[in-house]
Design brief:
alpha+beta; Beta-lactamase; eight-stranded antiparallel barrel; 3 domains; 516 residues; 21% strand; single chain; Lipocalin
Length: 516
């Protein structure tokens, strides 16, 4: 299996313990029942993790099928103000949106509007993959469990430079697969979102309206939404924080994930999420009301594709269901989970323990450093083992640190040009228009300070700084940006540059732009 950003986290132990094949029977594990003592210990656990990480705000909910056992906010909505987090504070969910989204689609499946095995192209006729056969055959199920053949996170950068959801979905056809259809797991937000949009289109509604009408309102999730504008309008909401040295500050950019709403665009409070976790434990029903048909919801909890081999002989390999991470945690232990993260300031985690009949969800307003995952896994240890088995914060912190390392510009320190570096040609040799099917046209323009790169549908200008010879650098922005990226012009003799390779866009070998 190819190494991906997600595989680092899964291998580290996010490992997400879950259902055996076939139907699981809810039952308490003798001597492993959740008690008031565990909930009291949870208070101290959250305070300790927040102290060690410095994350500004956290909200936590613990539920059983029939009631909310614990619901509490900690810390601040923004680090530079006195507004406290409470159970009704609204957080961005990031990829915790995925199991929420497949719950919505399970509702449509139960209603007979769509099926898990419906081809996406049936309701999105403009959708296409690079292979016509895959275009015809790929289904909602395939995209929801990340077995499309698309590379890990491919398409995210198209969003970062400003293209909208329709254009991003249209450009999936230009992404070169990195595995055969159906054979490998590779986490992909835009493919997942295409499946969500296709399901909503089959219902004759927008994705946002389907979420409101099929889940949020019937379930009583009063502040939940899949529209960024709704989140932004909430008075009691958090702000995304990033780390600057040893301080957490409100980021200059705040994440708007509307383009990939099914994969990462939902927002909700801990109170809302508590209701949703109860729905999972109740197999589609809550307080005697059926919201989702049980057989439709149950399908989301079954393993669909392996995400990695077993790292512990006492546990089986890890899997992905339909929007859920799935793993075997020992005899008769049935658990489902998912983590979410925005580098621009959100980190979330949920665990659902079917056999033990409880679930925990943790929301935070900081870039990912492992805080929600540590709280979840430490709490599970306390309930199931009687003590915290390992230093989860060290484990998850290292995993997220690996994921934060940029995939580009690793062969030199491009922030520091070498002494005496000389330009390879006059500015005019680089100026011009270049094209790339996936990322669209770009321009290199001359300015009073030098030359700049223009990207995106409403072209944004990024200054190019000379590094050496025909190599320049620029600083990307957005969710996936880290340090400066090399921009390598290809030319010979006195001719103008024929092409430009931008490392930032080249993770999957599609970062070459040809002169128009």
């Amino acid at each position: 299996m190819p190494f991906t950003r997600r595989s680092a986290l899964l291998a580290s132990g996010l490992g997400l313990l879950a259902p055996a094949f076939g139907k699981a029977t809810p039952q308490s594990t003798p001597g492993r029942e959740l008690t008031e003592k565990h909930l009291t210990a949870l208070n101290a656990l959250v305070v300790d993790v927040m102290k060690k990480t410095g994350v500004p705000g956290v909200a936590v909910a613990v539920v059983s099928p029939d009631r909310v056992l614990y619901l509490k906010g900690f810390g601040l909505r923004r680090a530079d103000a006195a507004n406290r987090v409470d159970p009704d504070t609204v957080f961005q969910l990031a990829s915790l949106s995925k199991p929420l989204s497949t719950t919505v689609v399970a509702g449509l499946v139960g209603d007979g509007v769509v099926s898990w095995d419906q081809p996406i192209v049936r309701s999105l006729p403009g959708f296409a993959m690079s292979d016509p056969r895959v275009t015809r055959e790929i289904t909602l199920r395939d995209m929801f469990c990340h077995r499309s053949g698309l590379p890990d996170h491919a398409g995210d950068l198209v969003e970062d430079i400003g293209y909208d959801r329709d254009e991003i979905i249209r450009r999936l056809r230009y992404i070169k697969p990195n595995s055969s259809f159906h054979t490998h797991y590779a986490y992909n937000n835009m493919g997942f979102s295409a499946a969500g949009f296709a399901a909503a289109k089959a219902a004759g509604k927008s994705w946002e309206d389907v979420c409101d009408q099929r889940l949020y309102r019937p379930l009583g999730m009063t502040s939940a939404s899949s529209r960024h504008a709704d989140f932004f309008a909430q008075k009691n909401r958090v702000f995304g924080h990033v780390r600057r040295g040893d301080r957490w500050v409100v980021g200059k950019e705040q994440r708007n994930a509307d383009a990939q709403a099914p994969a990462g665009g939902a927002s909700a409070s801990a109170r809302d999420m508590a209701i949703w976790v109860r729905l999972q434990l109740g197999r589609g029903s809550i307080d005697g009301r059926e919201i989702i048909k049980p057989e439709s919801l149950e399908e989301t909890h079954f393993p669909q594709i392996a995400t990695g081999p077993a790292h512990d002989p006492k546990r089986g390999p890890t899997y992905y269901g339909l929007g859920w991470d799935i793993d075997y945690g020992g005899p008769a232990r049935v658990r489902w989970s998912h983590s979410g993260a925005f580098a621009l300031g959100a980190a979330t985690c949920v665990y659902v323990m079917l056999a033990e009949r409880f679930g925990i969800v943790v929301l935070s307003n900081s870039a990912p450093v492992g805080a929600p995952e540590t709280i979840c896994r430490s709490f599970l240890d306390l309930v199931l083992m009687g003590r915290i088995e390992r230093d989860w914060l060290a484990l998850f912190g290292e995993a997220f640190a690996q994921m934060a390392v940029p995939h580009y510009g690793r062969d030199a320190d491009y922030a520091k040009p070498p002494a005496g570096a000389r330009a390879g040609a006059p500015r005019s040799a680089y100026v011009g228009d270049y094209r790339n099917d996936l990322y669209g046209p770009i321009g290199v323009i001359e300015t009073t300070e030098g030359i700049s790169l223009t990207l995106g549908p409403a072209p944004t200008s990024y200054p190019l700084h000379h590094y050496s010879g025909n190599i320049f650098t620029f600083q990307p922005t957005g969710e996936n940006a880290a340090g400066v990226s090399p921009v390598r012009f290809s030319r010979s003799g006195s001719e103008k540059a024929r092409s430009v390779l931008i490392d930032y866009f080249n993770e999957n070998g599609q970062g070459v732009f040809l002169r128009s």
